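User: I've been trying to design a sequence by hand for this structure and keep getting stuck. Would you show me what you'd pick, starting by listing the structure so we're on the same page?

Assistant: Good idea, let's start from the same input. This is the structure you sent:
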């Protein structure tokens, strides 16, 4: 199993027999969360199982659609077609994984079409056909013992899946057109909600006193603020852990014209509201309209004035 924390498929299976090499070409277009099995450029067994999976998925999708359309007679025919599909694969396949997958599906979903004696005969056929299969498991479950390495891998995959969910949620929050809501504390400790700003544009700037590239942006931001003083406000979010250094930098760089808020707590942790902005590196910025919807992102150097000039012209 291959797990991707950000882009690409949410989870991807790679199947191999001893001695196999599997080569997969994976891209952003495979981002669909249902992408589990993908045909390989190299890997005979992987592609055999993938083909089996894709055909079964096609049958099941048709069955679900027929159910939604309340076509009961057609659903019965599709069930019989699926039973034949699994039975044929159990009889013809050279791979125990496919045979046992088919047997489990028959047992779980098609007990109305195939009786216990037939299921027992299928299990006996699989055991006889694949007597040396080291993964030879009973159709009705197993008592496998997981290795320490397997336990660590499973734990890491779970962590990656959680990271991906957080990443996708933040990506949705930060997409152009999305609305940003923030409720952070100012220099005096009092909250300054973003919603309290009613000007035409708001520029959110995420920075820190120790970040030289961040502080190099301040002259450009001040220039834009001077040119569009009536329409623009700067909502500057510091992620300094040391709040004293944050306040010193404001004085040193003469940033009194900005609205300053802090994005960290007293336990030296970035606040969840700021984490949700998807800040992986700073400087990070967002230009918002009067409804606090994102118009543009990461307008560094002279790009902020260029975009504001363009918006004003429109």
């Amino acid at each position: 199993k291959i797990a991707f924390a950000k882009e690409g498929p949410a989870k991807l299976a790679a199947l191999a027999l001893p001695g196999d090499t599997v080569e997969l070409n994976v891209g952003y277009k495979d981002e669909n969360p249902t992408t589990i099995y993908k045909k390989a450029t190299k890997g005979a067994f992987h592609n055999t199982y993938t083909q089996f999976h894709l055909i079964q998925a096609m049958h099941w999708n048709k069955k679900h659609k027929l159910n939604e359309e309340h076509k009961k007679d057609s659903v019965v025919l599709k069930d019989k077609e699926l039973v034949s599909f699994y039975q044929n694969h159990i009889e013809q396949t050279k791979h125990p994984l496919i045979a046992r997958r088919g047997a489990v599906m028959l047992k779980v979903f098609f007990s109305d079409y195939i009786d216990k004696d037939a299921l027992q005969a299928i299990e006996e056929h699989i055991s006889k056909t694949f007597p040396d299969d080291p993964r030879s498991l009973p159709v009705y479950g197993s008592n496998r013992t997981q290795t320490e390495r397997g336990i660590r891998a499973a734990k890491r995959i779970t962590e990656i899946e959680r990271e991906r969910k957080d990443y996708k949620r933040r990506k949705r929050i930060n997409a152009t057109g999305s609305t940003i809501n923030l409720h952070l504390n100012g220099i005096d400790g009092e909250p300054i909600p973003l919603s309290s700003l009613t000007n035409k544009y708001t520029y959110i700037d995420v920075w820190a006193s120790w970040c030289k590239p961040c502080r190099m942006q301040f002259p450009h931001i001040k220039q834009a603020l001077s040119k569009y003083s009536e329409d623009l406000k700067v909502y500057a979010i510091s992620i300094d852990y040391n709040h004293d250094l944050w306040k010193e930098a404001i004085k040193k760089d003469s940033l009194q014209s900005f609205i300053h808020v802090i994005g960290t707590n007293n336990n030296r942790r970035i606040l969840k509201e700021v984490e949700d902005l998807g800040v992986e590196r700073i400087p990070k910025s967002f230009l918002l309209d009067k409804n606090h919807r994102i118009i543009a992102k990461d307008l560094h150097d002279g790009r902020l004035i260029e975009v504001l000039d363009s918006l004003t012209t429109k």
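That's my pick for every position. To get oriented when you compare it with your attempt: The chain has ten helices and nine strands. The beta strands are 2-3, 11-12, 183-186, 191-193, 201-207, 232-238, 259-262, 284-288, 294-297.
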